[in-house]
């Protein structure tokens, strides 16, 4: 579907930092909000789940035992940013009755994208094993992510979790402004850090994989994002429906790639309302 695009077209539609010139302001504000939130809330910071230098998690215990666990995976095109930019989402989720785990992972090009996917799977399994320690229910995880983190969360839905783990412990997924077909990556600047061949694109694109975890999925994207970026979310939603998944598509008017993350922390908003329903299901 991208055959007619030139390099400038790919950049226009698939480089969010070009589409939002003041993105650094948004990210800086998010970072400050997250730091202030950590000052207010009890939590365990940078708990190690693997040997990689960035394989750490922030854990926010739920207020009551046996609560659902919200596992959040940050974006940054697999090569930038961290959980510390998005920690501000934890406070309203705790108020909604969840425990929260904010996941970091090693970044490209220090590791391959395939390694990042495996690290995130390791993080999810680790959080499940530690859930009781944060008042969480190990059989009720909601996996979420934004941008490249949404891609990684979607990859968890296509993972063949072994029978010992089962797949039923993932009770839902929240995918916000994600990229689900990696075909554009070799045509944009991030290819310098995220090197993909044709086989990588096939096996690491959720759009091209069978979703194996049959849990409800929310696919959200901003109405002010580029058309082809919105199209990725719409097409992945259709992929889920075709696989007989319970899936909701949510277009949030007036939001671009960097403002939509704030919707994850707005208790009265549409996105948070849908998240609350997943946590309660």
UniProtKB/TrEMBL annotation:
The keyword Ribonucleoprotein does not apply. Transmembrane segments: none annotated. Keywords: Hydrolase. The keyword Cell cycle does not apply. One of its GO terms (molecular function) is hydrolase activity. It holds the Pfam family BD-FAE. Residues 63-156 form the BD-FAE-like domain. This is Alpha/beta hydrolase. It comes from Dongia sedimenti.
């Amino acid at each position: 579907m991208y055959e007619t695009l030139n390099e400038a077209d790919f950049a226009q539609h698939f480089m969010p930092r070009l589409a939002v010139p003041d993105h650094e302001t948004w990210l800086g504000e998010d970072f400050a909000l997250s730091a202030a939130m950590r000052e207010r809330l009890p939590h365990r910071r940078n708990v190690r789940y693997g040997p990689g230098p960035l394989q750490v998690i922030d854990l926010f215990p739920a207020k009551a035992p046996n609560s659902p666990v919200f596992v959040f995976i940050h974006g940054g095109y697999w090569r930038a940013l961290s959980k510390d930019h998005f920690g501000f989402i934890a406070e309203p989720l705790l108020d909604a009755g969840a425990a929260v785990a904010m996941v970091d992972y090693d970044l490209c090009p220090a590791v391959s994208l395939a390694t990042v996917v495996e690290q995130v799977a390791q993080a999810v399994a680790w959080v499940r094993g530690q859930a009781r320690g944060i008042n969480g229910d190990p059989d009720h995880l909601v996996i979420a992510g934004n941008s490249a983190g949404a891609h990684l969360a979607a990859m968890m839905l296509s993972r063949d979790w072994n029978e010992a783990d089962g797949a039923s412990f993932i009770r839902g997924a929240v995918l916000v402004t994600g990229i689900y077909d990696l075909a554009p990556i070799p045509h944009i600047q991030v290819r310098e850090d995220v090197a993909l061949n044709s086989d990588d694109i096939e096996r690491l694109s959720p759009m091209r994989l069978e979703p194996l975890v049959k849990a409800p999925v929310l696919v959200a994207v901003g109405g002010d994002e580029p058309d082809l970026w919105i199209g990725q979310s719409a097409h992945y939603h259709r992929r889920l429906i075709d696989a007989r998944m319970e899936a909701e598509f949510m277009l949030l008017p007036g939001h671009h790639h960097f403002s939509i993350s704030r919707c994850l922390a707005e208790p009265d908003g549409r996105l948070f309302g849908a998240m609350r329903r997943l946590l309660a299901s």
